[in-house]
Amino acid sequence: NTEMLREIEYVPATRTWKGEVFALKRGMFVPMTIRLTSGGFEMVAGSGIMSKTIEWTRIDAGAASAGDQRR
Predict the structure, then answer these.
(1) Which end of the chain is more exposed for a tag (fewer CB within 10 A), N or C?
(2) Nearest Cα residue to 18 out of 39, 45, 40
Protein backbone atom coordinates (compact mmCIF):
# COMPACT_ATOMS: atom_id res chain seq x y z
CA ASN A 1 0.00 0.00 0.00
CA THR A 2 1.54 3.32 -1.07
CA GLU A 3 -1.17 5.58 0.36
CA MET A 4 0.31 8.26 2.66
CA LEU A 5 -2.79 10.43 3.21
CA ARG A 6 -6.35 9.27 3.62
CA GLU A 7 -9.83 10.50 4.47
CA ILE A 8 -8.93 14.15 3.79
CA GLU A 9 -11.86 16.54 4.25
CA TYR A 10 -12.04 20.33 4.20
CA VAL A 11 -13.58 21.92 7.33
CA PRO A 12 -14.94 25.35 6.34
CA ALA A 13 -15.56 26.48 9.94
CA THR A 14 -11.84 26.24 10.78
CA ARG A 15 -10.52 26.64 7.21
CA THR A 16 -8.43 23.49 7.63
CA TRP A 17 -8.14 20.05 6.06
CA LYS A 18 -8.37 17.06 8.40
CA GLY A 19 -7.61 13.43 7.82
CA GLU A 20 -4.85 10.92 8.48
CA VAL A 21 -1.21 10.65 7.46
CA PHE A 22 0.95 7.53 7.61
CA ALA A 23 3.67 7.93 10.26
CA LEU A 24 6.54 5.83 8.97
CA LYS A 25 8.39 5.59 12.32
CA ARG A 26 5.20 4.48 14.10
CA GLY A 27 4.04 2.21 11.27
CA MET A 28 0.47 3.47 11.46
CA PHE A 29 -1.89 6.24 10.40
CA VAL A 30 -2.22 9.20 12.78
CA PRO A 31 -4.62 12.18 12.80
CA MET A 32 -3.48 15.13 10.70
CA THR A 33 -4.54 18.76 10.18
CA ILE A 34 -3.36 21.07 7.39
CA ARG A 35 -3.87 24.83 7.37
CA LEU A 36 -2.74 27.56 5.01
CA THR A 37 -0.31 30.14 6.36
CA SER A 38 0.79 33.46 4.91
CA GLY A 39 3.93 31.83 3.51
CA GLY A 40 2.70 28.35 2.58
CA PHE A 41 1.03 25.72 4.74
CA GLU A 42 1.49 23.84 8.00
CA MET A 43 0.72 20.21 8.82
CA VAL A 44 0.30 18.90 12.36
CA ALA A 45 0.43 15.10 12.58
CA GLY A 46 -0.41 13.08 15.67
CA SER A 47 -1.99 14.42 18.84
CA GLY A 48 -0.90 15.82 22.19
CA ILE A 49 2.74 15.31 23.14
CA MET A 50 3.06 12.77 20.32
CA SER A 51 2.50 15.38 17.59
CA LYS A 52 4.84 16.91 15.03
CA THR A 53 4.42 20.17 13.12
CA ILE A 54 5.91 20.58 9.65
CA GLU A 55 5.86 23.87 7.75
CA TRP A 56 6.18 24.28 3.99
CA THR A 57 7.14 27.69 2.61
CA ARG A 58 6.39 28.99 -0.87
CA ILE A 59 9.37 30.17 -2.85
CA ASP A 60 9.50 32.40 -5.90
CA ALA A 61 9.37 30.28 -9.08
CA GLY A 62 12.30 32.25 -10.52
CA ALA A 63 14.41 31.60 -7.44
CA ALA A 64 13.52 27.92 -7.55
CA SER A 65 14.58 27.47 -11.16
CA ALA A 66 17.80 29.45 -10.58
CA GLY A 67 18.61 27.22 -7.62
CA ASP A 68 18.10 24.11 -9.74
CA GLN A 69 20.96 24.93 -12.11
CA ARG A 70 23.50 22.21 -11.46
CA ARG A 71 26.84 21.89 -13.20
Answers:
(1) C
(2) 45
